[in-house]
Amino acid sequence: MKNKTKIAIIGIGRWGKNLAREFGKNADIKAFCHTEKNENIDWLNKNFPKIPSKNYDSILKDEDIEAVIIATPINTHHKLAKQALLAGKHVFVEKPISETVKQAEELTRLASKKQLILFVGHIFSYHPILAKVKSITKREKIKKAIFSWHKLGTFKEDLVLNLGSHDIAIALELFKKPTNIKITKKIKSVTRCDIINLDLKFKGNTTCSIYLNRISNQKNKTATFIADKNVYLWENNSLFKLNKTKNEFSLIFESKTTPLEIEVKEFINCIQNKKTPLTNGEFGTEVVKVLEKIKHQ
To answer: Is residue 93 located within the same domain as residue 134?
Structure first.
């Protein structure tokens, strides 16, 4: 049995805490690095009382630590990931990999040069429902996909970089690179953009509409796939198929495993078996290329 991979968690905001819980089951957490807010200290004392908090430089100098998990604001991803790779650490960095294509390409080249794992946390790429949809596309052509996400906040990050990167990654997984990208709606409220609608076109006349709304009182994320003969609905951890005779959706698949669990285990697997991640630097870069085109419209 292989020894547990020794890691450090960088950032323990809301998502960082989720990562810490899951990595705590699958790896050996040697240190945390965080802003020393009372709430962070209290949470660590309650959940990981024996694990020390250290500054980033000391973590990078610690030869016992094999990998770092970066769950910090998007504008810090490139700098922190680059420092870790230069220090010889494998890197799990939350999506998107960086703010610009240039930064993403630099990290990808550096990881390749250093022969290190660069794993981008595009969590929906590891969702069992997406795997099921991909299997459906092998026998049925999807003509149109409609992604819709309603939630409230958070307003700390750019809407498209933060939420849009999820749906862009799903679209790239299913349809590869888009041939055309167009913003059809953009509404500001709390920030410069809190509602947006995007239309993407792909080879073979496949289209994808992405609607993001972070000033909604409801919380719901769905993906509708219109194929040649059937209609499928992905909602949370369930996949439904439209029964056109009864005019109702029937459950055809339900995920019992969380994508976070799968994602974390896959990162560890990539390190231990020197395996190229599904969401490696190249994939992360392709997502940022689309995000950058949206940004420049």
So the answer is: no
In a domain, 292, yes or no: no
- How many domains are contained in the chain? 2
Residue 287 located in a structural domain: no
Dist. CA 30–CA 59, nearest whole Å: 9
171 and 192 share one domain? yes
Based on the fold, state whether residues 160 and 180 are members of the same structural domain.
yes
pLDDT tens digits, the chain, 297 residues: what are they? 579 999 999 999 999 999 999 999 999 999 999 988 889 999 999 999 999 999 999 999 999 999 999 999 999 999 999 999 999 999 999 999 999 999 999 999 999 999 999 999 999 999 999 999 999 999 999 999 999 999 999 999 999 999 999 999 999 999 999 999 999 999 999 999 999 999 999 999 999 999 999 999 999 999 999 999 999 999 999 999 999 999 999 999 999 999 999 999 999 999 999 999 999 999 999 999 999 999 999
Confidence (pTM): 0.96
102 and 196 together in one domain: no
Q: Is 175 helix (H, G, I), strand (E, B) or coil?
A: helix
The verdict on residue 103 lying in a domain is yes
Based on the fold, state whether residues 138 and 188 are members of the same structural domain.
Answer: yes
Q: Does 250 lie in the same domain as 264?
A: no
